[in-house]
Write a structure and sequence with these properties.
The complex is a heterodimer of chains A (595) and B (152). Chain A is 65% helix and 5% strand. Chain A contains 23 helices and 6 strands. Chain A has helices at residues 3-57, 68-92, 94-98, 101-111, 118-133, 141-158, 163-182, 185-196, 206-223, 246-272, 278-295, 304-311, 317-336, 344-364, 371-387, 390-401, 407-425, 429-436, 455-458, 472-481, 506-510, 536-545, 568-594; strands at residues 465-467, 486-490, 496-501, 529-530, 550-554, 562-567. In chain A, α1 runs parallel beside α9 (206-223) and α6 (141-158) runs antiparallel to α7 (163-182). The relative contact order of chain A is 0.09. Chain B has 152 residues and is of the alpha/beta class. Chain B is built from 5 helices and 6 strands. In chain B, strands 1, 2, 3, 4, 5 and 6 form a 6-stranded mixed β-sheet that branches. In chain B, α1 (21-29) packs antiparallel against α2 (41-54). Classes of the chains: A mainly alpha (595), B alpha/beta (152).
Chain lengths: 595, 152
């Protein structure tokens, strides 16, 4: 058939494709706007409930009017009661409670196709209101991200969208809720990119993320008319000669971030030695916190009032240092015992105090820097360090202060603080937490195709297995009967012990002399294993490092029982499937752009 | 595969005094103490014991070939021990053992490990070779016997 005739025969199909693409794009735009509205409303409602709790229970508000005795009694009882209710929720729904924090959103987007059950979203809507509302010095951003992601996921589930779209709207919803809670749409976008998408700028969620963040911010401004941070803050950037001192502030912020990381690890280790009951863990922390509140009421709740107090010049350096120390300790303790809340707002508060005190210290030596300026810039420094989000930190502080003069010191201090943290830890805080769950994102850029594919999705049932005590004849019999030329060898309690392959035992097969001397253990070669929730990129890396054809998949690093196998062939087949799917998607996108 | 004599040395040949198989294994493994062969002889002994507990390496005909593979062994080697009074090794034929050849290999020397075990088994197939080794107390003489088995 001539080429012209062939082309004209394809035209109706191309026309249908164009119409389909136009509908797809319009639908995507509409859903992104709808998600922005819903996530914005979710964020507003969450913010409203937190504000009501703050106005009712915080030391400077309603309870200050109840008389001196009841004031102190209430200060001790409120955090205790809130912590007990939150602990009861943990006991009643331990599995949902465990899906806490931004990390659970990242995992849902990365490995669960963005699927977040509605009950999880509802649970993590109310639990933080109780924790933070009753005084825990934690922030609303982590729960907001969960709420937004949950709304995006629920919307996709109701509309029966596919897995790719569900991931996309879950990620976009997380950013949109952050945009709504902080009134910061650009920070919402960067939060989505840096935290939820782990810096994957090629991700197809980007357009949905930007649109829903903008819409969520508009919705938020329709209901929330004031920023958490006071407007019209006065400060001086100082003389050019004083600018190099920002290096000191950046280094201090980086080191305080590292101190926080180490303290959090120590806190978790200490708590793991306490009784496992959530109630038994929170009671001592809540009582200590209540006692501390009687002396320093500024440690109550999210703590924006501290930032406002600092920039208004209400605190002496000594008092600011006391607030910093107590807030730091109680943030670590509350997070360790399982309170509900995030570390963005706490990092902003700690950062403002760190900046303020750094300036005060420098001024003792006659440097002459503005403590208010350092407090504002310090917010970005500690947020970037503690949460490994330099771009989000810059944009968030810029947007909540709405002051362009701050931008360059903010950029400098945030990035240097992050680099200090990264220099010592070698990976971001979220990459570190994911690694603890067996998910390695350190080479994500290199193995992007396999970054979202899990070992469990490509593994086959375990191959033939022999006990390491099996005699030579039985072992060789199993090996010869295996259709892969390899078998797994297990030890005590079925623990994986290694591999036995025809290639390795060829010598033994050639000689019948060994039949009375060797057992399966002698024919076993140690080798790497995989976990079901590990990314396939991890399997590719291990295949590259070891000359083996098959790898065992074990249930957990502790029990090491084989539950499956992955062969090089499995990996190549998965790669081919992914490329096919990817190419089909790219074709549609390219085609719609050419129009 | 090198001739088997190149996997040992006179310093690794001795007369075993104990009649207990685990003590005999420990005595023989200790010849690697301070050598470049194995950086952790205690671990080698533990691995040999563990292997022995799975199934006796007493293959009968008064011979035992305890063996283990651990990362701490740098060069695959064997030590040779002769026992005049015999060792109870839970051998397949129930007879006491007079000749113990202890093979230590590195984790990544799997193919050489099986080849060496196979060569030792072939070498000992001739009963007169075993008799000559057991009747000779001199490491120098035993090395000569091992070297005479060039083809193996």
């Amino acid at each position: 058939m001539p080429a012209g005739q062939r082309l004209s025969g394809m035209m109706p199909a191309l026309e249908r494709l164009r119409t389909h693409e136009a509908a797809r794009m319009s639908g995507h735009l509409a859903l992104s706007i709808l998600l922005g509205v819903l996530a914005g409303l979710g964020g507003v409602l969450f913010h409203f409930l937190l504000e009501q709790a703050r106005m009712l229970l915080s030391p400077g508000e309603f309870i200050s009017r109840v008389g001196p005795l009841w004031y102190y009694v209430t200060l001790i009882l409120v955090p205790l009661a809130g912590s007990l209710v939150a602990a009861a929720m943990t006991i009643l729904a331990p599995a949902i409670a465990a899906e806490k924090g931004v990390l659970s959103v990242i995992k849902a987007v990365m490995i669960r196709d963005g699927r977040i059950p509605l009950r999880n979203t509802l649970f993590h809507f109310f639990a933080p209101v109780i924790s933070i509302g009753s005084g825990a010095p934690l922030g609303p951003e982590s729960p907001s991200a969960q709420i937004g992601a949950g709304i995006g996921s629920f919307m996709a589930q109701v509309l029966k969208l596919d897995a790719r779209e569900m991931r996309m709207y879950a990620a976009a919803g997380a950013g949109a809720a952050i945009a709504a809670v902080f009134g910061a749409p650009i920070a919402g976008v960067f939060f989505g990119i840096e935290v939820i998408l782990l810096n994957d700028l090629k991700n197809s969620s980007l357009s949905a993320l930007v649109i829903s963040c903008v819409v969520a911010d508009i919705v938020s401004h329709a209901f929330i008319d004031e920023s958490a941070i006071s407007s019209g803050i006065t400060y001086s950037l100082g003389a050019v000669a004083s600018y190099p001192w920002f290096i000191v502030l950046a280094l201090v912020c980086g080191l305080v971030s590292l101190l926080y990381l180490k303290s959090a690890d120590i806190g978790k280790a200490m708590v793991s030695r306490l009784p496992t009951s959530p109630t038994a863990r929170v009671v001592p922390v809540a009582l200590l916190f209540g006692a501390a509140l009687c002396f320093i009421p500024e440690i109550f709740g999210t703590g924006y009032m501290v930032i406002n107090g600092l920039v208004a010049g209400n605190y002496t350096p000594v008092y600011a240092a006391q607030i910093l120390a107590l807030r730091f300790v109680f943030i670590v303790l509350f997070i360790s015992v399982g309170a509900y809340g995030g570390t963005f707002a706490p990092a902003l508060v700690l950062g403002s105090l760190t900046g303020y005190l750094t300036a005060a210290l420098l001024n003792i030596f006659g440097i002459g820097v503005d403590p208010v300026l350092y407090a504002l810039v310090g917010m970005g420094g500690l947020l970037a360090g503690i949460n490994s989000v330099p771009l989000t930190a810059i944009m968030l502080v810029f947007e909540i202060t709405n002051d362009y003069r701050l931008i360059w010191p903010l950029m400098f201090v945030s990035v240097v603080s992050y680099l200090v943290y990264f220099y010592f830890t070698k990976r971001s805080v979220y990459a570190g937490d994911l690694a603890k769950s067996g998910i390695d994102v350190s080479r994500r850029g290199e193995a992007d195709v396999f970054g979202k594919l899990l070992v469990r999705e490509i593994m086959t049932p375990p191959c033939r297995t022999v006990d390491r005590r099996a005699n030579f004849r039985k072992t060789i019999g199993e090996l010869l009967d295996s259709d892969r030329g390899e078998i797994f060898v297990t030890g005590n309690r079925g623990r994986f012990a290694g591999y036995c392959s025809i290639r390795e035992v060829r010598e033994a097969l050639r000689s019948s002399d060994l039949s009375d001397l060797v057992v399966a253990a002698d024919l076993t070669v140690a080798g790497p294993v995989l976990l079901p929730d590990e990314c396939v990129s991890g399997a590719v890396e291990k295949f590259g490092e070891h000359d083996i054809e098959i790898m065992a998949v074990v249930d957990s690093p502790e029990s090491m029982r084989p539950v499956g196998a992955v062969t090089r062939k499995n990996v190549f087949a998965a790669y081919r499937r992914l490329l096919d799917a990817w190419e089909a998607e790219e074709y549609l996108i390219r085609h719609s752009y050419r129009r | 595969m090198k001739p088997i004599a190149e996997y040992t040395a006179e310093a690794y040949i001795l007369e075993i005094t104990s009649g207990n198989k685990f003590e005999a294994i420990e005595q023989l493994a200790r010849v690697f103490d301070g050598s470049d062969i194995c950086s952790d002889v205690d671990k080698l002994i533990a691995a040999l014991r563990e292997r022995e507990e799975i199934m006796s390496t007493g293959i009968g005909f008064n011979i035992a070939i305890p063996h283990a593979k651990i990362p701490e062994v740098k060069d695959i080697s064997f030590a040779l021990g002769v026992s005049r009074k015999g060792i109870d090794f839970d051998s397949m034929d129930g007879n006491p053992v007079n000749l113990v050849i202890l093979v230590a290999a590195g984790e990544k020397q799997h193919k050489d490990y099986l080849s060496l075990l196979s060569s030792i088994m072939a070498f000992l197939k001739d009963p007169s070779v075993k008799e000559q080794i057991v009747s000779s107390a001199d490491p120098k003489r035993i090395m000569e016997i091992l070297k005479s088995a060039q083809g193996v």
